[in-house]
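Protein modeling request. Please complete all fields; requests missing the sequence field cannot be processed.
Requester role: graduate student
Desired output: 3D structure, token encoding
Chains: 1
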Amino acid sequence: MTNTILEINDLKVSLTEKPDISIIKGLNLSIKKGEIHAIMGPNGSGKSTLANTIAGNPMYTIDSGIIKLNDEDITIISPDERAKRGIFLSFQYPIAIPGVTMVNMLRSSLKAIRGTEPSAREFIDELKATLATLKMDEAFARRYVNDGFSGGEKKRAEILQLGMIKPKLAILDETDSGLDVDALRAVADGINTLKTPEMSILMITHYERILNYVTPDYVHILVDGKIAKSGGFELAKEIEANGYDPILNA
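Delivered output (250 residues):
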């Protein structure tokens, strides 16, 4: 087995309900174990479509190409099977689930992914340890999922899920969206705290600001469904200074 976690070859994706609308148009991407990759790009370039396609969202159809996780072709397997194999997607707009506590959702998630239900003591110990690591109050886990949460609390709830599930590949779809500076730092601190050499991260973002706190190994600029340019963190700085126009007009 290679050290590559995610391998995408010549991926082409369209909307399932509108197959004539092509969004991803021949994308290639390779992420190794422990690496952080950032995907940036203007509105409508296909960033969230890429994130959802990797996770298996049925709203999108893979017209051609291959997605591999740990050398296994996962192109046609279901979203739940992808999750069991180690893919985690944090949502840009997390929904509220009134009546379902964070505790119950997390325990159900672990049972589904691991195939066995953790004992009550094992689960509580793991949850308390994760909350402590993230410097989160234990009362947070007893609240209903995202119900009445602020924007920052919703994103921190996603990071708590990340910490409990411990995926091989964490896809963070605009985790910085709608956050003030304090909330952004809290979320970034959580990501940095949870990251291990075994976990790879794919960050989808419009702006450079979260990358000032979670430093990527690679930055890719997505334009019209393809990666137009790749580089290191300096590429994000370049976009912040000059915008996307120099790349769009190249």
